[in-house]
Amino acid sequence: MPLPLGKGLPRVALIGVTGYGAIYLHLIREALKRREIELKAAVIINSNKVPDLVTELQAGGTVIYPTAAAFFAQETGRIDLCLVPTGIQWHARLTISALQAGMNVLVEKPLAGSAADARAIRAAENATGHWVAVGFQDIYTLEARWVKTQLLAGVIGELRDISMLGLWPRSRAYFERTTWAGRAAAEGAAVLDSPLNNAFAHFVNLALFFAGETAGESATVRIDSAELFRAHQIEMFDTAVVRGTTRSGTRCWFGVSHAIEATRQPEIVLEGSTGRIEWWHEQRCTVLHPDGRRQVFPLPTAEHARVLMFEAMLARLRDPQAHVCTTAIAEKHTLLIENLQHIGRVSVFPQTSIDWKQDGDTNSEIPVVRGLAEALGLAFKEKSRLASVLETSRLAPLPA
After folding, report:
1. Residue 2 pLDDT > 70, yes or no?
2. 11-137: what fold?
């Protein structure tokens, strides 16, 4: 619900201050400096590990709670915006509790670990009259919204194909950092952690948003083929190629991997009947118009996109029409991820095809599947199944 004007600064609460919560805490500190908000409460379950932070927050008037249950019991009806940058398994439970406690919510991506949890969040929104925004930060940029308006205006004709590729190496330490990393479920709730639902979730969701048939809509994708692989010793997968089709007929291709040596920043290619748009993460966006004109403009960094996201939360408190990533938008991503779980079988790369390389940043090892990066690049270019490339190119062995 909109915050009544003239009632003071927005009252904000934060659940979790370490891990990704530290990024949200940075946004809060900057807003506090600008005197845009009041940080009324924070849930810190490991206060003994961050004593200086506890002292800092308490000195500013923030009440520290050791559990979310204690926070909700005391702060019902007293918080305007609750931030939930927690593990995926807690997204639905904490978001629903916050809504029932009279709070609006910014929950970190993805919306939830299952379609059922996403539906439960949306039902709680409707029942309470409060709103939930999702931390898919790229949607909050002016550039993303401009691209969406251009697509709807038919600037590149009928949208026929969307493809996205991202390659980010991840070491063993990445999957050891939490109890839920690489797992299907944790602490009694679905997680479905994978590159498509975590590291590259932003870009899958952005592609679905671009493919949506209206300004505030994302596309629903029917999965045509799902190739899921792992090199890490995890429950889920660290490499995937997914091909699908939207209800309007747009073909989709998503390729990602953590089992490679060199980073290839995410890129999204939108191909229309008369033109093309290329989106290069944190670099540039290029529009190739039907008349041959090439329009190029820079894209903001992820850090700046998060600043815009936080500004959008404050705007939404006063204006119900302010642009945010709604649960209706984010739910389409969650549905795609859950459908993968039902359709795709995870195959294992042969150990004989993997070179384990030392990662100096984490003092851990990264699995590098020989030839995989090149094969994914070729599959991206051809919008083909990865198995087809592996069979014909011999760049990398077929997984078992």
Report:
1. no
2. Rossmann fold (3.40.50)
| CA–CA dist 164, 143 (Å, integer) | 17
Q: Determine contact, residues 392/371, Cβ cutoff 8 Å.
A: no
Q: Enumerate the β-bridge partners of residue 226.
A: 242
Residue 121 belongs to what H/E stretch? helix 115-128
The two tokens of residue 170 are 């991840």
Q: CA 243 to CA 161: how far, in whole Å?
A: 11
Residue pair 224/364 in contact (Cβ under 8 Å)? The answer is no
Please give the CATH architecture assigned to the domain spanning 141-313+320-393: 2-Layer Sandwich (3.30)
Write down the pTM of the prediction: 0.95
Q: What is the pLDDT of residues 87-105, one digit of tens each?
A: 999 999 999 999 999 999 9
> Which residue bears the tokens 């929104």?
125
Distance, CA of 164 to CA of 251 (rounded, Å):
12
Range 219-223 contact pairs with CB under 8 angstroms and sequence separation of 24 or more: 219/246, 219/247, 219/248, 219/250, 219/252, 219/332, 220/246, 220/247, 220/332, 220/335, 221/245, 221/246, 221/252, 221/332, 221/336, 222/246, 222/247, 223/336, 223/339, 223/340, 223/343
The rounded distance, in Å, linking the Cα atoms of 333 and 218 is: 8
Domain residue extents for the chain: 11-137, 141-313+320-393
